[in-house]
Input
Amino acid sequence: MEIAPHWAALGLATLAGLSIPLGASLAVVRFNVFPEWLGSELRHGVIAFGAGALLAAVALVLLPEGSARLSALPALGWFLAGGIGFALIDRAVAASGGKLAQFLAMMMDYLPEAMALGALITGNLETALLVALLIALQNLPEGFNAMREMSEASGKHPPLWLFFLMVPLGPLAACIGLLLPATYDPVIGAVMMLASGGIIYLMFQDIAPEVPLENTMLPPLGAILGFSVGLAGHMLI
Output
């Protein structure tokens, strides 16, 4: 029996979003269970994997889908606006004593990609499945890293229900992408390019500098693994 596009979009976006609280839960386990040395290796490895998956999202989904909906000059303008805008947000957060780079990066690829999933699902189910897989693969390490970052900044774990509250935002974004008429394609494209610029800024400013670990090559290889998973899915489709 064929599933209606709106139910497919809701289901895929919800399943992908559930990996956010799952990743956050794993971060709590890491703090409470693993010894310090293993916890450090795991933290750096997960950060690197998440960075690789984020790069795959930008390179394989957000930039191609966003630029396809816009002419060259507006696409470049929105990309630069994303980088500059989130540089200002990141500076304001840092000035207030907070640290939300991982959280911002998580939301900036989760919501635009969920919107892309909704926009794609009626015309290309296989590509929509790839987008859902990428969202899930990214949300897991990003939920882990966001919980870790927020815990280290405040000295205590934020409640897990905050991460569960993020899950419904994905289906909502997917429905927006599904229901918007074709005349709104430039709006979806602008959101994707804006998110791409912001993600690239945060990766080089806040996320990538946390990856290196002395006397081991595993963290940067984790970034390669994260990107290769997205690339494999892209080539299989």
Remarks:
- The CA atoms of residues 12 and 105 lie 20 Å apart.
- The radius of gyration is 17 Å.
